Amino acid sequence: MVTAALCVVGAAPAMAYAPVSVVHTERAQAGPYAVTVGFSTWPIRALKSLDFTFMPDGGIAGTSGQLLLDGPGVKSDMRVTPLVRHPRKRDRWGLDTKSFSAPGIYFIGFAIDGPLGHGEGSLPGVVVQSQPGPPMALSWTVGSLPFIGLVVFLAVAWRRIHPGRQPLTL
User: Fold this and answer.
1) Can you tell me the distance from the alpha carbon of 35 to that of 112, in angstroms, rounded to the nearest whole number?
2) Which of 15, 53, 132, 139 is the most interior residue, by most CB within 10 Å?
3) Are 106 and 45 contacting, i.e. CB atoms less than 8 angstroms apart?
4) What share of the chain is helix, strand, coil (3-state, %, to 5)?
């Protein structure tokens, strides 16, 4: 019992969520609010998840806002979303493990309400490059070959044995 408790206490730091590491930042102006946009991966690639953080100068206390996204891979229900706290970096707004489904040029906009009033701004021209690695169809085809080989092997083995047609031997 004591050993189990010590294992849980010792494992607590290892079980914690990894912090967001921002490797690239951009600055945007949303009316009176200057916003720092952080990216956990740079350059951005399609179908690759990354974290976005949005931090207005002065912090997010007493402010609210909306995130406006537009681009070739943005679905209509994701174009306008409220800015919410990042789940692992609670002192700023953010998107956790977000990916864009198609390469292209994206628009990231903000509408912020706070003590200085309402402000709107954008970070235009965010380039999302094509996905890393081979095309998805080729990846799925190569990845499915072992499963297809297993199915063929089982079918051939089943036909050779014919367990329902052979007499029961004792």
Assistant:
1) 10
2) 53
3) no
4) 25, 40, 35
Tokens of 110: 């903000």
Question: Cα–Cα distance between 107 and 102 in angstroms, integer?
Answer: 13
> In this structure, are residues 71 and 25 in contact, taking their beta carbons and an 8 Å threshold?
no
What is the tens place of the pLDDT at every residue in 57-86? 989 999 999 999 999 988 888 899 999 999
Site of tokens 């004792």: 170
Distance CA 94, CA 54 (A): 6
pLDDT of residue 83: 93
CA distances from residue 45 to 49, 119, 135, 156 in whole angstroms, order as listed: 8, 29, 13, 43
CB 55 within 8 A of CB 93: yes
